[in-house]
Design a protein that fits this description.
Blueprint: E1 8-11, E2 15-17, E3 20-22, H1 27-30, E4 39-44, E5 50-56, E6 61-67, E7 70-76, E8 79-85, E9 91-95, E10 100-105, E11 111-116, E12 125-126, H2 129-137
Antiparallel strand pairs: 1-9, 2-3, 4-11, 5-10, 5-12, 6-9, 6-11, 7-8, 7-10
Length: 138
C-alpha cells in the first residue's frame, strides 16, 4: 500500500554580512525526522528547458535554491501545486516519494541543490507519466 505524503515548505535563515552570506542547515531542525542524507547534487538549468519530470518510489528529496528563480510543479494523488523558490524567500521544498516533479528555471544558470535520502538507482524512478498515473490510481 502506497502512503501519499504531500510536499512541504521548509524555512531556513540567512545571515548576510559585508563579506558574503551564510545559510546553515541543521539535520535535526530543517530535515524531516526520518530523512537521512545519502546523496546530493547541484542542478543548473536553462530557461528554455525543464528538468526532472519524474517521480520516485523510495527517495525523498529536499530542494534548496542556490541562484535565481526556480519553479517546481508537483502532481500526486488528489494534489497538484506549483512552488516558486529563490534564496531570498528563505524556503526549501521537501518532496516525499510518489510525487511527480517538473522543475523550471527562469534564467540560464539558475541553480539548486538537491538532498536525497536514497542512493541513485534507476529502477527506483518512475519515468513515464502514464505509469505514474497507473500507480497512484491503485
Amino acid at each position: 500500500m502506497i502512503k501519499f505524503v504531500r510536499p512541504k515548505i521548509l524555512k531556513y535563515s540567512i545571515y548576510p554580512e559585508l563579506s558574503g552570506t551564510l545559510i546553515p542547515f541543521y539535520t535535526n531542525k530543517h530535515f524531516p525526522k526520518k530523512f537521512r542524507l545519502k546523496r546530493f547534487f547541484i542542478l543548473y538549468g536553462k530557461s528554455k528547458f525543464f528538468r526532472a519530470d519524474h517521480a520516485h518510489k523510495k527517495c525523498s528529496q529536499i530542494i534548496i535554491p542556490l541562484k535565481g528563480q526556480i519553479k517546481i510543479k508537483i502532481k500526486s494523488k488528489n494534489f497538484s501545486k506549483s512552488f516558486s523558490l529563490n534564496v531570498k524567500k528563505r524556503k526549501a521544498l521537501f518532496i516525499p516519494p510518489y510525487n511527480w516533479i517538473t522543475i523550471y528555471f527562469k534564467e540560464n544558470q539558475d541553480s539548486l541543490l538537491t538532498l536525497c535520502d536514497y542512493k541513485y538507482d534507476k529502477k527506483e524512478y518512475i519515468s513515464l507519466y502514464k505509469d505514474f498515473k497507473k500507480i497512484i490510481s491503485k
